[in-house]
Design a protein that fits this description.
Layout (H helix, E strand, L loop, with lengths): L3 E5 L2 E3 L8 E4 L4 E4 L4 E3 L1 H17 L2 E8 L4 H9 L4 E6 L10 H13 L6 E5 L10 H9 L3 E11 L2 E8 L2 E8 L2 E5 L11 H7 L4 E4 L1 H4 L31 H14 L4
Parallel strand pairs: 1-6, 1-8, 6-7, 7-13, 8-12, 9-12
Antiparallel strand pairs: 2-5, 3-4, 9-10, 10-11
Helix pairs in contact: 2-5, 3-4
Length: 265
């Protein structure tokens, strides 16, 4: 059997949307999104691109795994058309991602991955654009007992091992570990290629499996390890001081003095 890569892909509101589309609801301790189409988390797109490059060099197959409720088939189709071979959607009305903490998400994804065994490599984004937590991938690795490498800018597979270039603040380091393994991918890998119209049409015929919670033998709610105590938008205070003077030169002197007193200059 050839190399089997599973890519975890979270569906998120388009991070390029305007700030006015996001509403912080302090009473509900959540952020509501209005009028923004869903997209695949950009870092997960980087992970899919890394998987496709591995497939081009080493062969094998790619399965796209996503979790949530009311998952957009068009978004999944576009991602699969870029180079995946199949998709698995863990979909249930109760899977509101805004109400799932990182541990709950990791537990559900780990259970779904067990149904996809055997697999050789799990790739996911370094973090999700909606929460920026960056811990789900490592949680999945811990639950499945997999070695994990984070912040990859390049991923290669050969001779039953994965070689990863990890992004550092002052360069990169090369890490190697045996398969199966999990790798979180950073944006330095590069953007996901855009699928052709022909590839999108062909992707409609690729296998897609819908998984329910009963198939995973898991019931909600899963015990959360993180509690949101409060959520509020940042306070922005503005003040304006008028500089009054009889001449431009005098106004400049007074402005300079005020800036000096406020330690601006």
């Amino acid at each position: 059997m050839g190399l089997h890569i599973v890519v975890l892909a979270k569906m998120v509101p388009d991070p390029e949307g305007p700030p006015s589309s996001f509403e912080v609801r302090s009473e509900e301790k959540r952020v509501a999104v209005r009028g923004l189409p869903p997209v695949i988390n950009p870092f997960d797109e980087n992970a899919l691109e890394a998987a496709i490059r591995i497939k081009e060099r080493a062969g094998g197959s790619i399965t796209l795994l996503s979790l949530g409720r009311n998952l957009s088939r068009a978004v999944i189709l576009k991602a699969v058309a870029a180079g995946a071979d199949a998709s698995v959607l863990v979909e249930e009305d109760s899977l509101d991602q805004a109400l799932l903490d990182s541990r709950s998400t990791a537990v559900l994804l780990a259970a779904a991955l067990r149904t996809l065994e055997p697999f050789d490599l799990v790739l996911c984004g370094r973090q999700a654009s909606d929460t920026n937590a960056g811990v789900v991938g490592l949680g999945v690795a811990q639950l499945l007992g997999l070695p994990a490498v984070t912040l990859a800018q390049k991923v290669e597979v050969a001779d039953g091992r994965v070689m990863v270039e990890r992004v550092l603040s002052d360069g990169y380091e090369v890490v190697e570990c045996p398969l199966p393994a999990l790798v979180t991918v950073s944006g330095e890998v590069g953007d996901l290629r855009y699928p052709s119209l022909q590839a999108i049409r062909a992707a409609k015929e690729l296998p897609q499996r819908i998984v329910r919670l009963q198939d995973l033998e898991i019931s909600l709610p899963i015990e959360a390890w993180v509690e949101t105590v409060s959520l509020a938008p940042p306070r922005r205070e503005r003040s304006c001081r008028m500089v009054e003077a009889d001449t431009p030169a005098e106004a400049g002197e007074r402005l300079a003095q005020l800036l000096w007193e406020d330690k601006v200059v």
